[in-house]
What we know:
InterPro entries: DUF6261. By secondary structure, the chain is mainly α. It has eight helices and no strands. It is rod-shaped and about 90 Å long.
Amino acid sequence: xxxxxxxxxxxxxxxxxLGNVILDELEKTTIEDAYITAIKSEMSTICIGLAxxxxxxxxxxxxEKYDALRDNTYRSLLYLNKGFLLHPxxxxxxxxxxxxxVLDKYGFSLVNHNYASESTLIDAFIRDMKMPLIAPNxxxxxxxxxxxxxxxxxxxxxxxxxxxWHEARAEDGKTLxxxxxxxxxxxxxxxxxxxxxxAMAQLNPATFxxxxxxxxxxxxxxxELVKRRSSSEEExxxxx
Length: 240
């Protein structure tokens, strides 16, 4: 049986999974072979780094999600108060006018700052909205207190995600990203492990056949998944 090479357009997450199952096979084997041991060590190092890089990517995605949430909530508050400025009730118009003085200080451009600056500005904005001269006006305007409370929640979620991001970066200390590490892992599997097992399965089948068959099975399954996804994406594009 000829062992397939890993398809290069395999997704990062699928490559991580494949690398781990191949490592499991290498850990379980009783074959005493210096080259296999060296490959196993190299793969293990890359897989650890790749798992960390994937985790970094997920945390960054959450950071972007929570930043979008707080941006939308902040904009909603500003738009709502603009509506109150035109309200038929004089009391509501007056309250909105007082609140607007704070909103004008920060404006819609607040959400265009970088993450750190925006966090500082939102914290200052929330403090200003809770000042004794402004807070009573906020309570007069229907729904404004709820949106302000939601903004605080969104801000807290963002800060939590940001802490996780910094902790992940500090813990990993990596300069390679997930895509680069994926290619490194593929090179080890395709150019070292697969080629070596192909040769040894011919030269010493009694020793290497079982390991070769198991690893071949895992690679074949992973490649089939890639092919199915590619086929599905082509069908969608044709249908559109």
